[in-house]
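Help needed: design a sequence for this.
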């Protein structure tokens, strides 16, 4: 259906027709409230991925042994948030209809809403696993209901109570935590209980959304809203590997803002994270 992207993530140069996984970028940061720059993440991750290997010693797997199609970045219109979400939803819907697994690189976290809209239509009993420093449960942010600060509330509008499992949350307004107490399942500060949730959700469709600022900013400073006190990279990889026990029907990695880390370490961490996600999901 589509031609391969000119510059792909390392090892992801297969044809669309032969690939089970479809990687694509959503370079949008139009509602970022603090430091913009996540629109550059997907291109940076593709470029810098050639600084790592296709082989993962964590999993004893190699990207050369699975089929991933890298569709490149979506052409999205800045200045019209709803149209951006519609473009993401439309692309995701096409991938799902072709019985393939959409894997999106943001972008700010609001891009997740576009993908989840499509996935929720195909999987009515959809559950969400959300790793993040921020609750993202505001009803609105400065009067805007579509914002990276409201994305999980908008997703709750779609899936309903107790279908969103949040981990690593350590920032938000009081009202967000009160909302979570009634409507989501939240683990503050860390990933405690993650394995129990994996066992609980093993028979339902799951969308996995990863905001990279769940990591401590000493590990990943290149993000728009860094929050001290996050998890370690090892903890993140251990959580990703457990996704192999789930029916993952869509996922994303977002909120890398490479311009705020001139050392390149944050992008390197993001590259390795994407590789481990691809290898984990490629075996499902």
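Sure. Designed sequence:
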């Amino acid at each position: 259906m589509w031609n391969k992207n000119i510059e792909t993530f390392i090892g992801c140069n297969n044809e669309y027709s032969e690939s089970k996984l479809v990687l694509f970028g959503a370079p949008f940061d139009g509602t970022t409230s603090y430091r913009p720059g996540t629109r550059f993440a997907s291109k940076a991750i593709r470029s810098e991925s050639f600084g790592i290997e296709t082989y993962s010693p964590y999993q004893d797997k190699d990207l050369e042994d699975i089929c991933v199609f890298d569709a490149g970045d979506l052409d999205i219109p800045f200045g019209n948030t709803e149209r951006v979400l519609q473009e993401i939803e439309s692309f995701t819907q096409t991938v799902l209809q072709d019985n393939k697994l959409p894997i999106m690189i943001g972008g700010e976290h609001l891009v997740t809403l576009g993908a989840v809209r499509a996935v929720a239509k195909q999987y009515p009993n959809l559950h969400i696993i959300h790793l993040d420093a921020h609750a993202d449960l505001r009803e609105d942010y400065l009067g805007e209901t579509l914002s990276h600060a409201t994305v999980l509330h908008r997703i709750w509008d779609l899936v309903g109570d107790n279908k969103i499992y949040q981990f690593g949350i350590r920032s938000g307004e009081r009202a967000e935590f009160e909302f979570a107490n009634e409507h989501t399942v939240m683990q503050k500060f860390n990933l405690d209980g993650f394995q129990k949730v994996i066992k609980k959700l093993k028979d339902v469709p799951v969308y996995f959304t990863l905001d990279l600022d769940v990591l401590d900013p000493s590990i990943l400073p290149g993000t728009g809203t860094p929050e001290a006190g996050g998890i370690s990279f090892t903890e993140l990889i251990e959580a990703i590997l457990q996704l192999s026990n789930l029916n993952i029907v869509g996922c994303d990695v977002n909120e890398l803002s490479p311009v705020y880390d001139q050392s390149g370490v944050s992008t390197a961490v993001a590259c390795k994270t994407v590789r481990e996600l691809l290898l984990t999901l490629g075996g499902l």
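The longest helix spans residues 81-97.
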